[in-house]
Amino acid sequence: ILTLIFINILLQGLVTLVTGGASGLGRATVERFVKQGAKVIIGDLPTSKGNELATELGSSAIFAPLNVTSEADIQNALDLGIKEFGKLDVLVNAAGVAVAYKTYNSQKKAPHLLEDFERIIKINTIGTFNVIRLAVGHMVNNEANVDGQRGVIINTASVAAYDGQIGQAAYAASKGAVVSMTLPIARDLSRDGIRVVTIAPGLFDTPLLALLPEKVRIFLAKSIPFPQRLGKPEEFAQLTQAIVENPLLNGETIRLDGALRMQP
Ligand SMILES: NC(=O)c1ccc[n+]([C@@H]2O[C@H](COP(=O)([O-])OP(=O)(O)OC[C@H]3O[C@@H](n4cnc5c(N)ncnc54)[C@H](O)[C@@H]3O)[C@@H](O)[C@H]2O)c1
Ligand SMILES: *[C@@H]1O[C@H](CO)[C@@H](O)[C@H](O)[C@H]1NC(C)=O
To answer: Residue of the nearest CA to atom 4 in ligand 2?
Structure first.
């Protein structure tokens, strides 16, 4: 019995799709999961470094070029994963984009472009849901463990879902929706034995943030109560592993932010 429980909490052999897996938080998750013995499908844009990463990681990882908003792309990625690794146990949704535009720019006398708002919602919110709804169709085929569990889904929101800053109307709305759908999706999938948990990261040191000048990055880090530094992508990856391993986490969003509450 002890051995069985032990095996259950390891990532060994778990097949995982990580969207946004070629960069930042997704990439750290890919690397950690491969180290822990999982098989990983790196889902990312064709223009990303997904192929290079897969080559670097060897036979435990494959690259599936995709746009999270496309039904065909996701189906192809899932089929590729099944062909290569035989099943799908875990989905980590880490693909996402950020923009910063005010609702109305009074200097330029210009309203926020509707296309920009729509694009962010399309990728962050609809893209996340698109991958979830299609991945579930494969997870339900898994043999259930002692708890009846067949799969785990992890989404990436943001602390902007709760305290969005100036210029973050679209981004905050897109991530707020990810937080809001976590519970109903967990409820929807409870009969299938699939857990759904969302992480709301604070400020992490990824290529997304590297675009900012060093001065701004230092200023941002100082706004974090403790520890007063940007999060390391490995710390995000560590939480994804903990979520997979802990059978009671479900239907919840976890802030991972060093107590950061973003100011206007
Ligand atoms: N870095 C932070 O401080 C921070 C904070 C809060 C939330 N987040 C969220 O975490 C997630 C990962 O962010 P990151 O910092 O690692 O950024 P990143 O830019 O390093 O990685 C994001 C990845 O998503 C991919 N991607 C973008 N649009 C896509 C699409 N349409 N289809 C498929 N892939 C797509 C990109 O190619 C990239 O590889 C995002 O959802 C982001 O909003 C990041
Ligand atoms: C992904 O698809 C969305 C719309 O479906 C589109 O707006 C976006 O440009 C696409 N991204 C890339 C990089 O092709």
So the answer is: 69
In percent, how much of the chain has pLDDT > 90? 90
Q: Which of 21, 89, 156 is nearest to 78 (CA)?
A: 89
The single-letter code of the amino acid at 227 is P
- Is the Cα torsion angle 166, 171, 173, 176 positive or negative in sign? negative
Instruction: Name the architecture of domain 15-205+232-255.
Output: 3-Layer(aba) Sandwich (3.40)
- In the chain, where the domains are located: 15-205+232-255
Q: What are the backbone angles phi and psi of residue 23, rounded to the nearest 5°?
A: -150, 155
Residue 5 Cα to ligand 2 midpoint, Å, equals 42
Q: How far is the CA of 122 from the centre of ligand 2 (A)?
A: 9
Positions annotated as catalytic residues are 171
Pocket of ligand 1 (CB under 6 A): 19-20, 22-26, 44-45, 48, 66-69, 94-98, 123, 127, 156, 158, 201, 203-204, 206-209
pLDDT at 9: 55
Enumerate the H helices of the chain as residue ranges: 2-8, 24-35, 50-57, 71-85, 114-120, 127-139, 160-163, 169-188, 207-210, 214-222, 233-245
The tokens describing 8, both together, are 């259950």
| Per-residue model confidence as pLDDT tens digits over 8-60 | 458 999 999 999 999 999 999 999 999 999 999 999 999 999 999 999 999 99
What is the rounded distance in angstroms from the CA atom of residue 106 to the CA atom of residue 191? 51
The residue behind tokens 């938080």 is 25
Which positions ≥6 away from 210 have C-beta within 8 Å? none
Residue 217 pLDDT grade (very low, low, confident, very high; cuts 50, 70, 90): confident
CA of residue 151 relative to chain centroid, distance: 15
